[in-house]
């Protein structure tokens, strides 16, 4: 079990930055980040998430038109902007990722099941990325205010991958953050049956 300092890093004291420090995120950190994310469980070890790390100015400018106006400054200032996507044809990897089961044929025969599985598990892997980034000392800003079609056309057209959400990664400027927004109480959000 994690001690309180570990829980603080992942949840209790972690905050979403509004501004970023100019400190870069090294490629080795991004590789380590993916290595941790890849260890998180997915159904049938399907691992449908795909990640595009945007670090350069050309990529940022390609992304800018897809951002909602309220997100431009917060996103463009991040050292790394990650497109969290999923591969609709993830099942082609299943003979390697889950060789003990014949799962590929299930998904290849049912487009709806494949899309639902890819989206759900890819989103789950994006959540793992948030936790892994925090564990590695990075701050994280999840973003859903963007035009997924523009992102797919600009960055994913040659892959067939589908954009889900963006994750800005870096070292946040946490000075003068407002108080943490309220959360629902256990009694409001949970049921014990």
UniProtKB/TrEMBL annotation:
Short name of one Pfam family: Nitroreductase
EC code(s) of this entry: 1.-.-.-
InterPro entries: Nitroreductase, Nitroreductase-like, Nitroreductase_HadB/RutE
Keywords annotated in UniProt: Oxidoreductase
GO molecular function, one term: oxidoreductase activity
Gene3D superfamilies referenced in this protein's UniProt entry, alphabetically: NADH Oxidase (3.40.109.10)
Residue ranges constituting the Nitroreductase domain according to the UniProt record: 15-171
Record's protein name: Malonic semialdehyde reductase
Taxonomic path: Bacteria, Pseudomonadati, Pseudomonadota, Alphaproteobacteria, Acetobacterales
Gene designation: rutE
């Amino acid at each position: 079990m994690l001690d309180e300092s570990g829980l603080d890093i992942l949840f209790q004291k972690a905050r979403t930055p509004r501004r970023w420090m100019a400190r870069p995120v090294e490629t080795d950190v991004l590789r380590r980040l993916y290595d941790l994310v890849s260890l998180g469980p997915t159904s049938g070890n399907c691992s449908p998430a795909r990640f595009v790390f945007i670090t350069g100015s050309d990529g940022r400018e390609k992304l800018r038109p897809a951002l909602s106006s309220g997100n431009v400054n917060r996103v463009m200032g991040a050292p790394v902007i990650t497109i969290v996507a999923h591969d609709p044809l993830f099942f082609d990897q299943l003979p390697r990722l889950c060789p003990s089961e014949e799962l590929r044929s299930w998904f290849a025969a049912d487009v709806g099941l494949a899309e639902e599985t890819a989206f759900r598990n890819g989103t789950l892997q994006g959540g793992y990325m948030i936790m892994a980034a925090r564990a590695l000392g990075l701050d994280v800003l999840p973003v859903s205010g963007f035009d997924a079609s523009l992102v797919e056309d600009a960055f994913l057209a040659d892959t067939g991958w589908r954009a889900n959400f963006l994750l800005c990664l870096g070292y946040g400027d946490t000075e003068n953050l407002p108080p943490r927004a309220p959360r629902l109480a256990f009694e409001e959000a949970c049921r014990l049956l």
